[in-house]
């Protein structure tokens, strides 16, 4: 049965400077519209300024209404919001979360469902700690009583933090989980999550279409040589390393070796493709473009002739189009690899989280083409071996992806059918 005039509130999607957030949002709207075409969709977003509101979301999802999730988020220590929120925390966590999410409760009162689009917000960070603010958000939603789901999510594992795992078992009761890979589904079953609240789907970004960029200068101009490799690298992975023994400069030097390796493996160009371009809060670590620009500038002149630093002004759909033209893609950002997988490009994932491993297991049945970032730091030959294997087996990998992607994309769309039934039920 199809629904009309239903209100669906989207939560926890971040700024569009992370193209993964953009891809999730575009995909989510497509999925909802297939099954609930007349739904009113409201986005409560974790965003960074009016440029996000007006220039980004307005372009890609014109029929979505936008609200700021953290209108009372402290901007600095000792400002008004900081003083109030910290005072309330000492009195009651419930009061503190009500203050932080002040507008959300009223928005949810007439909603048919709420979806948390965070993706990997419900995993552990590099220090084995959860992102607690989003569990406070969950509590606000649950108190209102609206039907609520983690949408296209990777969840856990929390075994490295047993105390939190015990808390999570009770916290997640009553929340539907649309798991984007089998590994998440298996983990939640293992810790006792009710199976009638679990649904296996795929990441919503798999449904996002590609779009050829109008600004060809952003991709180096001219045509793209057939024998080209796309590369997405960043310094975010350093959060998972010991900075004393593995500093930023060493990672930069090791990534230079990756670029040179790619040049040796192809006769075309190597495209350095940023997928997160936030210039807030230490861009050296948070902005792919910043890092790869530093990488490009360190290359010798002979190498620069065949390397293209892709601009930071392309949207997720334009980046997906560019990635689709590669003979091979090597990516650290999960949603950059999703752009490659979904266009049947042989892909090597540089993994620093559970989500990329889960998707590789789903699509390839192994981790042969998924290399831990930490392994690269210790031994570059492991990445080189995975890249060589991917190139040697490229036709086979394209065939595997061609066979699996259509049902995998349909699995993403199934989330809309499940949501429709939950709302009707």
Euclidean distance between termini CA atoms = 11 Å
- What radius of gyration results from the CA coordinates? 21 Å
The residue-averaged pLDDT reads 85
- Give the proportion of residues in helices: 40-55%
Strand content: 5-15%
Catalogue the unreliable spans.
48-54
Main-sheet strand order equals 3-2-1-4-5-6-7
User: Based on CA inertia axes, which overall geometry fits?
Assistant: globular
Number of strands: 13
Largest sheet: 7 strands, parallel
The SS-based structural class is alpha/beta
Number of helices, counting only DSSP H or I runs of 4 residues or more = 18
Element layout with pairings:
Elements: E1 7-13, H1 19-35, E2 40-45, H2 50-60, E3 64-68, H3 80-91, H4 93-100, H5 104-108, E4 113-116, H6 132-144, E5 148-153, H7 162-171, E6 176-179, H8 182-190, E7 198-200, E8 229-232, H9 248-265, E9 270-272, H10 283-286, H11 288-298, H12 301-304, E10 307-309, H13 316-324, E11 328-331, H14 334-341, E12 347-351, H15 354-364, E13 370-372, H16 373-378, H17 381-392, H18 394-424
Parallel strand pairs: 1-2, 1-4, 2-3, 4-5, 5-6, 6-7, 8-9, 8-11, 9-10, 11-12, 12-13
Polypeptide structure, described:
The protein is of the alpha/beta class and 425 residues long. It has helices at 19-35, 50-60, 80-91, 93-100, 104-108, 132-144, 162-171, 182-190, 248-265, 283-286, 288-298, 301-304, 316-324, 334-341, 354-364, 373-378, 381-392, 394-424; strands at residues 7-13, 40-45, 64-68, 113-116, 148-153, 176-179, 198-200, 229-232, 270-272, 307-309, 328-331, 347-351, 370-372. It is built from 18 helices and 13 strands. The strands form two sheets. The protein has a seven-stranded parallel beta sheet, with helices on both faces. Strands 10-9-8-11-12-13 form a six-stranded parallel beta sheet, sandwiched between helices. Helix 3 runs antiparallel to helix 4 and helix 9 packs across helix 11. It is globular and about 60 Å long. The protein starts with 6 loop residues before the first strand and ends with a helix.
């Amino acid at each position: 049965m199809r629904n009309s005039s239903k209100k669906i509130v989207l939560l926890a999607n971040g700024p569009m400077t992370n193209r993964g957030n953009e891809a999730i949002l575009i995909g989510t709207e497509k999925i909802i519209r297939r099954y609930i075409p007349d739904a009113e969709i409201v986005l409560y977003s974790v965003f960074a300024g009016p440029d996000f509101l007006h220039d980004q979301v307005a372009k890609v999802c014109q029929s979505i209404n936008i609200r700021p999730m953290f209108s009372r988020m402290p901007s600095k220590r000792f400002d008004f919001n900081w003083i109030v929120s910290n005072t309330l925390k000492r009195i009651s966590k419930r009061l503190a979360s009500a203050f932080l999410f002040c507008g959300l409760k009223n928005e949810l009162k007439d909603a048919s469902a709420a979806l948390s689009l965070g993706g990997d917000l419900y995993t552990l960070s590099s220090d084995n700690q959860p992102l607690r603010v989003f569990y406070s958000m969950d509590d606000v939603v649950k108190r209102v009583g609206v039907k609520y789901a983690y949408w296209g999510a990777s969840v856990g594992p929390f075994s490295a933090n047993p105390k939190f795992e015990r808390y999570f078992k009770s916290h997640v009761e009553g929340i539907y989980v649309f798991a984007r890979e089998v590994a998440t589904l298996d983990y939640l079953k293992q810790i006792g999550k009710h199976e009638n609240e679990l649904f296996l789907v795929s990441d919503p970004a798999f449904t996002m279409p590609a779009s050829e960029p109008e600004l060809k200068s952003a991709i180096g101009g001219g045509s793209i040589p057939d024998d080209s490799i796309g590369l997405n690298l960043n310094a975010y992975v350093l959060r998972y390393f010991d900075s004393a023994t593995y500093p930023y400069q060493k990672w930069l030097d090791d990534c230079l070796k990756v670029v040179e390796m790619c040049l040796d493996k192809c006769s075309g160009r190597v495209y350095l493709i940023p997928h997160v371009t936030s210039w807030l809060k230490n861009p050296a670590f948070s902005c792919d473009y910043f890092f790869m620009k530093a990488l490009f500038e360190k290359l010798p002149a002979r190498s620069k002739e065949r390397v293209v630093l892709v601009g930071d002004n392309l949207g997720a759909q334009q980046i997906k189009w560019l990635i689709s033209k590669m003979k091979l893609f090597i990516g650290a950002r999960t949603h950059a690899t999703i752009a490659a997988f979904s266009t049947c490009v042989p892909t090597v994932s540089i993994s620093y989280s559970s989500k990329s491993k889960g998707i590789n297991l789903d699509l390839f049945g192994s981790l042969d083409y998924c290399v831990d970032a930490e392994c690269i730091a210790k031994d570059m030959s492991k990445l080189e071996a995975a890249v060589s294997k991917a190139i040697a087996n490229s036709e086979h990998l394209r065939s595997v992806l061609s066979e699996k992607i259509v049902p995998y994309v349909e699995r993403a769309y199934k989330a809309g059918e499940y949501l429709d039934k939950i709302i009707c039920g």
